[in-house]
Design goal:
Length: 336
């Protein structure tokens, strides 16, 4: 981790204390447990420190995150609010992403901010700078938020991490480590989790909400996905396609697909799994999961996406899903 950039961020936030400046927080679209947990935790930490902060989001928050402390603080975004938000915004802080293209309909607001900062743990080829903290060795952005909050506590001589913040950061970490089972889990991860457990986090409840709680709609969708999964390259690649029609017919939503790409990767002999989902505008979102023989992040970046070595994603322009599957399988084959 770049400690100089961390210290620069801490100094900047300390300087905003008690000022009229407003920090707008930007997690990526297609929000996941790390993005929402880290962003809500950052929101609470900043507000507790006396810094004006807002979390505005342009998509429906998946129902499974309804248990999170502070979820009611998330403000819905609308284009007619742009002029007022633009006037209030002093700093745009991207969390769990580093490109404005991943902020959805909020991109115009983000791009017009007087100052921009980034806190992320995904590999990035973007610009560097003192307000751009990117640490690919962190298992989750939640780890970086914890470290920043601890430094800010020492700087301000004030307690900022309470039970609610601990629950949010534990949610972020558990989500991106697959309940501490993914290969990105490190001694640093467990050390931070140990500190968070001092706040009496009900880890069983967090895991249940994130991974175990299900619905008839999700079970129905899962059955269809598994039944229609196809295997390529002698079973080394598994591909599942999910259309808007399938989501509608099963009564499920996109959040019900969470974890399915990983389950497909767990099939014996599969080295790479691709979950291709049709978006409302006809575009395609692709989730990639892989074993040690395939770098998902590098593959995704070659097609404009990004992520981690074992879990990544990308987006494609509108095309038939099976055509996309054929193109992707061919490219995966070249990489394998």
């Amino acid at each position: 981790m770049n400690h100089d950039r961390m210290e620069e961020l801490v100094r900047m936030f300390a300087g905003l204390r008690g000022q009229p400046d407003t920090v707008f927080l930007y997690p990526h679209t297609g929000i996941d447990g790390d993005a929402i947990g880290s962003t809500l935790a950052m929101l609470m930490v900043l507000r507790c420190a006396g810094i004006t902060a807002r979390f505005v989001y342009d998509e429906v928050i998946p129902a499974k995150y309804g248990f999170l402390p502070g979820v009611e603080l998330i403000e819905p975004f609308a284009e007619d609010l742009l002029p007022r938000m633009r006037a209030e915004q002093t700093l745009a802080l991207a969390l769990d992403c580093s490109e404005s293209s991943r902020t959805g309909r909020r991109q115009e607001l983000f791009d017009q901010a007087p100052q921009v900062a980034v806190i992320d743990h995904h590999v990035s080829e973007g610009e560097s700078g003192p307000l751009r903290l990117i640490d690919p060795t962190a298992a989750a952005t939640g780890e970086l938020i914890w470290e920043l909050a601890r430094q800010l506590e020492r700087t301000l001589n004030q307690t900022l991490i309470d039970h609610d913040v601990a629950v949010l950061l534990m949610t972020a970490i558990i989500s991106d480590t697959g309940r501490f089972t993914f290969s990105n889990t490190t001694a640093r991860t467990f050390a931070i989790a140990s500190e968070l457990m001092l706040h009496q986090v009900d880890i069983r409840s967090v895991v249940y909400q994130l991974f175990d709680l299900t619905s008839p709609e999700r079970l129905n969708l899962t059955g269809h996905v598994y039944e229609e999964t196809r295997y390529y390259l002698d079973g080394r690649v598994a591909v599942a396609c999910v259309s808007q029609e399938l989501l509608y017919s099963t009564g499920a939503d996109a959040s019900d697909l969470d974890g399915l790409a990983g389950h497909l990767r767990n099939v014996a002999g599969v080295e790479v799994s691709l979950l291709i989902r049709e978006l409302a505008d006809g575009g395609l979102r692709v989730n990639i999961r892989s074993g040690a023989s395939f770098n998902s992040a590098a593959f995704a970046r070659s097609l404009g996406g990004g992520g981690h070595a074992r879990a990544a994603g990308l987006q494609l322009e509108p095309m038939p899903m099976r055509q996309a599957a054929d193109l992707l399988v061919a490219k995966v084959g070249e990489w394998l």
